[in-house]
Amino acid sequence: MVKKEILEAAPDNQLIRNTFIKADKLLDSYKNPICSVSGGSDSDTMLDLIEKVRNGRPVKYVFYDTGIEYEATKRHLKYLEEKYGIEIERLRAVKPVPLGCRDYGIPFMSKQTSMYISRLQKHGFEWRDEPFDELIKRYPKCQSALRWWCNKWGEKSSFNIDRNKALKAFMIQNPPDFPISYMCCEGAKKKTAKLIDQKYDCCLKIIGERRAEGGIRALRYHSCFDPVAEDSIPTYRPLFFWDDADKKQYKEHYGLVYSDCYEEWHMTRTGCAGCPFGSRFEEELELIKKHEPRLYQAINNIFGKSYEYTRRYRKFKNKKE
Fold first, then answer.
1. Per-residue pLDDT tens digits for 273-295
2. Would you give the DSSP letter of residue 271?
3. Sequential DSSP letters for 150-209
4. DSSP-assigned beta bridge partners for residue 74
5. 21: which of 1, 100, 130, 214 is 20 to 30 A away, CA to CA?
6. Number of H helices, E strands in the chain
7. pLDDT in tens, 26-41
8. Inter-residue contact 187 to 175 (CB < 8 Å)
9. Helix-helix angle 71-84:41-54, to 10 degrees
10. Whether pLDDT at 215 is above 60
11. CA dist., res. 134 & res. 272, Å (int)
12. In a 3-state reduction of DSSP, which class is residue 312?
């Protein structure tokens, strides 16, 4: 049972208190838990919460180095280790992001959009506005991507291309001349995590995802805990139901200090540096250029074509509007 003093000292927030109780029960129920630490604000909150209830029970902390990490993040990991008296094992990606982009393609817009474009590209798709019934005859093994292209997922569905205004018209006039893919995350994080889970005989994965962050995760998951996940390892997302106000309250109550990316640069998110999936990547690029110019050069070499394609699309969309 979670220590009485932990709950007494907790913020006046029932969701946060319930998270303490849930985390404590799961640490009692599962051996060899592995907790993924990213150095971001969600991760920091999760780590602090786990450490408050851990009470000597084993938790393996790991950090996946994607190959394009902020120096500020690396410094912050050392700070976390000193603050909590823990070890965070740094793990080099099975296939770092630069190699993933070279071998699979470059991310554009979002994971979902990149996935559909990648499938169409693999089938030699000609970017035309034709009826779905005609296209499916020509590309019979590409049904889901064609449904996206033809807006066949249902009226106002988030899976339709029209979710991004004028994107279809733009791509017809400006077909992508570079491979697009969402798979850079596969070798950088997912495959690396799978190897570590096997190495340490992981029985519980703890990750800092929140539903409020949106994207595919908001649709894929419906609970903070999956007893049987895709890879048969139970997965716990302590902050899944927390919104920004909950996280802010927790930070202020316990005096958490985030990495320089947040505290000094005033970024709102961290992850793979300069990832084109971020709608505000231009602002992020300016901050990276100012604070970590070598990293700025590196990510432009990796993602440059996607940045330029996105800029052209935004100009096209603005003219249409």
1. 999 988 889 999 999 999 999 99
2. S
3. TT-S-TT-TTSGGGSTTHHHHHHHS---S-B-STHHIIIIIHHHHHHHHHTT-SEEE---
4. none
5. 214
6. 16, 6
7. 999 998 899 999 999 9
8. no
9. 10
10. no
11. 39
12. helix
Instruction: Give me the chain's average pLDDT, please.
Output: 92
Contact between 238 and 207 (Cβ < 8 Å): no
Say what the pLDDT of residue 201 is: 86
Q: Which residues contact 284 (CB under 8 A, 6 or more apart)?
A: 267, 273, 274, 278
> Could you give the C-alpha distances from 190 to 56, 147, 203, 270, in angstroms and in order?
28, 27, 17, 18
Residue-wise pLDDT for 70-129, tens only, equals 999 999 999 999 999 999 999 988 899 999 999 999 999 999 999 999 999 999 999 999
The overall longest dimension of the chain from CA atoms, in Å, is 67
Residue 188 has pLDDT above 80, yes or no: no
For residue 73, what are the CA distances in angstroms to 14, 76, 123?
Answer: 31, 5, 39
Q: What is the pTM of this model?
A: 0.88
The string over 205-223, giving b where at least 16 C-beta atoms fall within 10 Å of a residue's C-beta and e elsewhere, is: bbbbbbbbeeeeeeeebee
> Which pairing describes strands 235-236 and 88-92: parallel, antiparallel, or unpaired?
unpaired
